[in-house]
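During the reporting period, our protein records have gained a C-alpha cell line. A sample record is set out beneath this paragraph:
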Amino acid sequence: MKKPTAGGAVSTVASMGTEALDAAVSVVRRAGEAIRSRTSHAGETEHRWHVMTVCASAEEVAPGGKLPEPLARLGDAIDTQLRPAPGERGTELACRLHHKGDAGQPDTAESANGHDKVQELRTALRHAKALVETGEILLPDRPSTNRPTVTGRPLDKLIEKAQGEGRL
C-alpha cells in the first residue's frame, strides 16, 4: 500500500482549483451573454449609430469634409454624420455600418478577414476621437511587468479586445 504524499495532495488541490476556476469563468460568460441578449436587440448592433462627442468644431473634426484617417480607412463601408454636441460642447461624430441596396440590410457583421466589423468601427471611432483631440492615437500603457511571454499573452489579448467595445 502506498502512502499519500504531500506532492500528490498539492497537485490534486491545484487541479481542483483549476476546475473551479474554469467553472466560474463559464458561469460568468453565460451570465454575460444572458444579460447582453436581454439588453440588446438581436441584429441591431450592426446597423445602429455609434456616437462620440469630440471636443472640437466640425471643421476640425473633418477639415474640408475629409474624415480622420482611422474612419477614412473604412471608406464606403460606413455612414457618418457630424452635428453640434448639446450645450456647445464640441461635435458629435456618428458612424454606422453602411446599408446595402434598397432592402436596407447592413453588410455582414464579419469582414473578409474574420474580424468583427462593428468592433473595427468602434475602434476606428475611438482612434479618430483621440487623433482629433490630441493629435495622436493614444493606446493603453503597457504594464512594465508585461513582457512578451506565454503568461503575458492573455493580458495583451485583453488590452487589444478592450479597444473595440471598451469592455472585457
Notes: Residues 68 and 128 are 6 Å apart (CA to CA). The radius of gyration is 22 Å. The longest strand covers residues 78-84.
